[in-house]
Write a structure and sequence with these properties.
254 residues; TIM Barrel; two-stranded antiparallel ribbon; 37% helix; alpha/beta; 11 helices
Length: 254
């Protein structure tokens, strides 16, 4: 079965990476909640994609330079616009949740967490937070950063990890014999269908990944026809901002 990931929650309907967006995605029945995590100045793991509050809350300060109280004061309902450009969620109490809060809010949900934090101690804090919540086996850590993923894996992490950007390129260009001799550390290749001249939406790429025991998830897919094409190609997962629209298509195509 192709998994459906709610990218930053049901972010087409609610402000991204908010409890409302994640609750809505869970209500729809998605398989995995995809999100991102940073760490505040006072050492609290919080849910946010960007390193600053500029895009989501109109505050240019970096999360790593703010306390949790300061980040909690941001109105991230400001980020969401409807099709006319109207900010319908401003002033309605949408704030940045903590990672601990999210894991406890949805105790049965599976998560794909992009470790955006870069300082080694902050990466450790993300791992500690998941472990303290007893959620290690329902969390897959992802990151573009190979250093982050190596640190997570070296911690004795029991859950899955994705492949870093460097590992994805290694998977693409190296022959199977080399990849079997020097195995990649993660379990999931999470990629766009194409990246510039590089194509990941091919039977050849999927077969190569499968030969190494890897699963392939595609992001970010918001058009039903594209979702249907990738499911029929053999995608293991589809990440979407709009699970209300894409989930039925994936289930039907699968």
């Amino acid at each position: 079965m192709t998994l459906v990931y709610a990218h930053r929650g049901a972010s087409a309907e609610f402000p991204e990476n908010t409890l409302a967006a994640f609750r809505r995605a869970a209500e729809l029945g998605v398989d995995v909640l995809e999100t991102d995590a940073h760490v505040t100045r006072d050492g609290v793991a919080v849910i946010a994609h960007d390193p600053t509050g500029a895009r989501t809350a109109g505050d240019r300060r970096a999360i790593r330079d703010c306390t949790l109280a300061e980040v909690h004061a941001w109105d991230v309902g400001w980020s969401h616009r409807d099709r006319t450009g109207f900010r319908a969620f401003v002033g309605r109490g949408h704030r940045v949740p903590t990672l601990e809060e999210l894991l406890h809010e949805l105790p049965r949900a599976r998560f794909n967490i992009d470790a955006k934090a870069r300082a080694p101690r902050d990466v450790d804090r993300l791992v500690e937070t998941v472990r303290a919540a007893g959620a290690e086996e329902r969390v897959c850590f992802a990151s573009f950063s190979l250093a982050n993923l190596r640190r997570i894996r070296a911690s004795g992490w029991r859950g899955e990890t994705g492949l870093s950007r460097d590992e994805v390129i290694w998977l693409l260009v190296q022959p199977l014999a080399v990849l079997r001799r020097f195995p990649l550390g993660g379990q999931r290749a999470q990629v766009p269908p194409r990246m510039g001249p590089l194509r990941f939406d091919t039977p050849w790429f999927l077969e190569k990944a499968r030969a190494l025991g890897l699963r392939v998830d595609y992001w970010v897919i918001d058009e039903p026809d594209e979702a249907r094409r990738l499911v029929q190609l053999g995608a293991d997962g589809i990440m979407t901002d709009d699970p209300a629209r894409i989930l039925p298509v994936v289930r039907e195509a699968g």
